[in-house]
Amino acid sequence: MVQRKRVMGALVTATVFMSLVAGCGAKTTETTSATTAPQATKAAEAAKAGDGKVVVGFSQIGAESGWRGAETQSIQDTAKADPTIDLKFSDAQQKQENQIKAIRSFIAQKVDVIAMAPVVETGWEAVLKEAKDAKIPVILVDRGIDKKNEDLYTSFIGSDFIVEGQNAAKAMAEHLGDKGNIVELEGTVGASAATDRKKGFDDEIKKHPNIKIVKSQSGDFNRATGKQVMEAILKSPEGKDIQGVYAHNDDMALGAIQAIEEAGKKPGSDVKIVSIDGIKEAFEAVKAGKLNTVVECNPLLGPQLFQAAKDLKAGKQLPKWIKSNEDVFTGQKAIDALPNRKY
Ligand code: GYE
Hints:
Subcellular location: Cell envelope
Number of helices: 13
Number of domains: 2
Domain Periplasmic binding protein: 57-316
InterPro entries: SBP_2_dom
CATH topology of the largest domain: Rossmann fold
Strand order of the largest sheet: 1-3-2-4-5-6-12
Number of strands: 13
Shape: elongated
Main location: other
Order of helices and strands: HHEHEHEHEHEEHEHEHEHEHEHEEH
CATH superfamily of the largest domain: Response regulator
Keywords: Signal
Bound molecules: beta-D-fucofuranose
Helix content: 40-55%
């Protein structure tokens, strides 16, 4: 994992991601340069002709967080650096219907492998059956889908969100000395990352009967909504007496920190903050004493994704879950790690 991060660090370039987040509606872009034709039909012909490339269609959710930007960049940069990969990248702008359209287009283009980060867990059955009928393997990247559809994908590459939630709860209990009222800022409703981070946290925090979750609300995994939701909570009766905020991602925590400061309280001391992801800005907030613990979730999934795609094309069997290795950072450990953060 450490090694993988180092490799990715060398590959990072800033421009690709920026060009992708602009505009509206689903956008599909070719990432490999060299010989790849821009038109879908030509690419499909080349793939069929077996020019040696592994053609991967990736449906990304959008650009809601720093974490997501890092994931997009990892996938784009890894593909660019590998002449054997032809990546078709589609940005769904947070809409499931755009992801479904992108997957149908990848099927029509006869890609070798479809990869997707599913925005929510449900509603994929029909389109994934179409992929299965077309004999195109599907890899889930970073978020999962409902258990009953496990036979509709080959592998899931990503984190254990339940464990992340449990680790966040353990850290929160420690910061609060086992006693206090907390607010939970949830991720996108229906997303596996939100459902499981909630489950892991809530179950673990129940072991501490003097800690109470007084409010739990979605901030949609983005900073502006996280701030708005926190502002409203601070004005509500429950918000008058809170000692902790658990945010399902760093961006919402950073938004909440602003709201808490604007309300005249000190994040990090009056209100302890724990969040998940591990973006650089969160580590900086720990250094500034405004955030207490960052639970890491690795977004640099490009190398694992394309290795898996190559393995599939070579006829290899993949594990159902390719797990990420992750750590938890509090206080000095976070400050020491800051110079080496890759996202
Ligand atoms: O934590 C959050 C993002 O799916 C694991 O989505 C991912 C989550 C990540 O927007 O920041």
